[in-house]
Amino acid sequence: MFLYQFVSLYFDDNCAEIYGQIRADLAKIGTPISSNGLQIAAIALANNLILVTHNVREFSRVDG
Fold it and tell me: Domains of the chain: which residue ranges?
């Protein structure tokens, strides 16, 4: 099957911590992003990954 070639990354405690930090930072400056976007960004940052997206408007607000 096509999807078996991809690895799923877990949203673990480290991701949750990063999620909270990103959310707080963006809320402080009044530029929040969606909860799904926060989750994707946190997983990417926790795993030192490069995030490729067409959603530059939201993800450009996230440092890292």
Answer: 10-59
Q: Tens digits of per-residue pLDDT, 5-21?
A: 999 999 999 999 999 99
What is the number of other CB atoms lying within 10 angstroms of the CB of residue 62?
Answer: 20
pTM of the predicted model as reported, rounded to 2 decimal places = 0.90
Instruction: Output the CA–CA distances (angstroms, integers) from residue 28 to 9, 22, 32, 42, 56, in the order listed.
Output: 28, 10, 9, 18, 20
Chain centroid, CA 3 distance in Å? 21
User: What does the alpha-carbon distance between residue 54 and residue 63 come to, in Å, rounded to a whole number?
Assistant: 17
Tokens 């490729």 appear where?
52
